[in-house]
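#structure-requests
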Amino acid sequence: MGWRAVGLGLLAGVVYLLVGPASVDNAFGALATALLHGRLVVPDGSSMELVPRGDGFSYVPFPPIPALPFLPFSAAGIDGVNPLLTAVAGGAAVALAYALLRGLEVRPAPATWITAGLGGSLLWIAGTGGTWLYAQVLALAFALGGLNLAVRERAPLLAGLLLGLAAGSRLPAGLSLPLFAYLYRGSWARLAQLGVGVALVALPIVAYNVARFGSPVDFGYGAILSWNGVPTVRGEQWYADGILSLTYIPRSLAVMLFSGYAVVTQPPWLRPDWSGLSIALTAPIFLLAVSAWHWRLGAVALGTAVLVMLPNWAHGNWGFYQYGYRYLVDAMPALLVALALLYQERVPRLLIATVGLGAVVNAYGLWADAINFISGPTV
């Protein structure tokens, strides 16, 4: 990794650490402490979303990999490191994004601009952290690390391990596997190593689920304690058709593509909403990626991005606590590959304009939150 990638990553990490609202709620710190004591349960109330057992302890209903970076801090009795870990993961993602673009033969100038667009899109997410956003940013860093190896056709076992860690942080990230497999095509040995790397993470997580809920695929999402007057989240109105349903897709697409500001009568006249804001405003650079469909690699990358997003679109929760549409983070590695095909040599004005718009809109969100000018979710 070159000096420019490292510099961009360090700059982004410092910005994320300094400017974000820095959520302190993080279930993974409590899970790390529990794991160090040989337990799979955390005390009730350790986080906002848990699966209670009825004995004063609860399960953490998320893939467990994000607890691993907490282990040394938990062992040392150090709390409150969630903002630091999220900022580090965000900075690493930015550095790895630039390295990925360079690995795809993008010139330094357009690679820098595209990476800046990624940084602007991550500004709110990596600056805020918390249980959900930290896991997403960590998954992005792992996926980009593995993709860096895949585009260079190196170390498929390690690439698979990193993809497994990404999926073990945020499940939809694992659906990037087709893009990885395409990049290692032509060698059954490399594809086998890729699969083994993924399995090295997947199998312990399967055992983790069996130990908790008796099923290899049950993370406990449907049993999460509700804060909305019903026993579990399954009773909440936005899960009327279950946790996942194809009927939710139009609603999710509407938030992702068309959600905007509310106009109010007092300054600054535009009120963001926690329910989300269109990626056309907060992450417009990624809309440009659709133009890469006519390259074979571009079509694979875009198809992979859609595959990754399907469980997000079909989820009853469309993001809620977000400025923008946070689920897009899961598809960013694939979308970066598509962008690399479009802007290898030069920096057109359209690229500059989209990067600038995303940065301004996300900075506005941080300011609006700082003055408590963001409304609650519209549901």
